[in-house]
Amino acid sequence: MRIRRKKWARPELAVCPFFESEPESMKGRWCSRFDKEQPFYVELGCGKGMFAAQFALKNRDINLLAVDIKSDMLGVARRRTQEMFDDARRSVTNLMLTAYNVEHIEKILAPEDKVQRIYINFCNPWPKPKHKKRRLTYPNKLEKYAQLLPEGGEIRFKTDDLPLFEESLEYFAQSGFEVVYKTNDLHASGITDNIVTEHESMFSERGIKINFLIAKNKAQRTENDAEFDL
After folding, report:
1. Using an 8 Å Cβ cutoff, are 149 and 175 in contact?
2. How much helix, strand and coil, in percent to the nearest 5, is found in the chain?
3. How far, CA to CA in Å, does 195 sit from each of 11, 46, 62, 201?
4. Alpha carbon of residue 177 to chain centroid
5. In which residue ranges of the chain is pLDDT below 50?
6. Nearest-10 crossing angle of helices 162-174, 139-148
7. What kind and span of H or E run contains 200?
């Protein structure tokens, strides 16, 4: 998504208590960046922060790291988060924003961080064949995520792009993941805890169905996977 340059974004992020300006220095010790140690999730490509802000406010018992390459986007995410938490009369203690290229996520995260879940919401579909390897669900990326996820970790992926979704199903299978849930119409699926993102709202208003999946490492699959919490 393109966004106009916002001169105020970087200065506001520089003094924001829930923005990390040096993410590489936090590799392997993100738990120390939050007020308390609790389950740790990551959103790759958080954009303007609609998902991250809502998720953090609704799930106070989970720490979330939201990553995006564009500081201008993160500036909007900071303001949105602060406004939502102020309205709820709560402090932002379980959300961290940081600016980084998520294609190199292994440079800021390590297995020691114990990421339990990764969210990929409406990433760039990169439809041209020569660009597909840049997809966030491409096998070389999934293999990186697999190294970060501890036993029981999972990836939750949403997209409006059906070709990307169908090819991603193949990518997950190639990369040692097992898709334990999938739907081509998320809003008619019965899932009750879905957090609607800005893109999602826009696509749904146009009548475009949302594709969604949950994937886990095959070696980490448990006997209770059939009863996973949606």
Report:
1. no
2. 40, 20, 40
3. 29, 13, 15, 10
4. 17
5. 220-230
6. 60
7. helix 198-205
Distance CA 93, CA 83 (A): 14
**157 by DSSP, 3-state: which?**
strand
What per-residue confidence (pLDDT) applies to 177? 93
Secondary structure letter of residue 196 according to DSSP: P
Q: What is the pLDDT of residue 218?
A: 76
Residues in the chain: 230
Residue type, position 25, single letter: S
Please classify residue 88 by burial: count the beta carbons closer than 10 Å to its beta carbon, then call 0-12 exposed, 13-18 middle and 19+ buried. exposed
Please tell me the pTM assigned to this model: 0.92
d(CA 223, CA 218): 12
Both structure tokens of 42: 């990551």
What pLDDT is attached to residue 23?
98
Is 215 in contact with 179 (CB distance < 8 Å)? Answer: yes
pLDDT at 225: 46
| Residue 146, H or E segment | helix 139-148
φ/ψ (deg, to 5) at 197: -90, 175
pLDDT of residue 116: 96
> What is the tens place of the pLDDT at every residue in 197-218?
988 999 999 999 999 999 998 7
